[in-house]
# Entry
Amino acid sequence: MSTKRLFQLAFLTFLVVGTVLIIRQQQSMPYQHDEGMVFGTMYHITYQSDKSLKPAIEAELQKVDQALSMFNEQSDIARINRNEDVQPGRMFTEVFRLAEKVSKETDGAFDITVAPLVNAWGFGFKEGIKPTQHQVDSLLKMVGYQKISLADGHVRKKDPRTMLDCSAIAKGYGCDVVARMLKKRGVANLMVEIGGEVVTRGVNEKREAWRIGVNAPNANNEGDSGELQAVLKLKDKALATSGNYRNFYYQDGKKYAHTIDPQTGYPVQHNILSATVLAADCATADAYATAFMVLGLEGAQRILEKHPELMAYLIYTNQKGEYAIWYSPSMKQRIIEE
# Structure
């Protein structure tokens, strides 16, 4: 046997043995389970690593908080809302640009300036006193994604009263930030969940795709039922759900979620109760899930036709007032239980 042939055989043996050793190491390496509080909700993170990376995880979440938290008086967004002369950092800029993009793609159904209207109607529902037409019209003057822009590193407002609220995208973005950090540290298998928004990479502890549940609405209107409507298998995908199972209002015998249309200033007359969206990143899934709650079933379907990279699982009430399900055809292969 020639020297060249012997070298090729030795190199091939080295590759095979090296691959086997790597696989064994991966299989024997433990999974870490970290949890805590962030953004006013719980986070749960499972990842394969020989040691806990919780300090690094919480450091990344703190960066997101410093950029997007409405409750942190020194955050970028809080200072912008006070009309201070601030040059926001990379994280705020990334989220702002994505929000701007989704707002345009959904004709304003997703809008990070809608919070004053949401608050007005939220208080109205709780106290039984709905805002008047005059109050709604007054708030609409300061609401609208077209009234804000980001240029030369500064947010510009057409109306200084306009307030930004990224709560409908921040949890998803936080998941993405943590997942990116873990990937940079060599973590291949992970599941990051913040308040129901999820990013998955690789496989779970059973060497299978991650299993993520979609909650079922509670027909008694007393909060989450605790039951699952479906279980989805995810690998290298992000998932976000928008829906309000606790608060509904009735009109003409039908149940509607408390979702405010940023353009009209009034609760939408669509019957989607829950929108679960799958995307490559969680911030995108988060934003579109919120938009679909505003757009309704047919509006969401039109958006999905234009964006085949997205998948959705929608729970709504049909003409008979009964719960019904619609999901993207490409979603079918991901549904384990229904």
In short: Residues 16-23 have pLDDT under 50 and may be disordered. Residues 80 and 86 are 7 Å apart (CA to CA). DSSP finds eight helices and 15 strands in the chain. The longest strand covers residues 31-38.
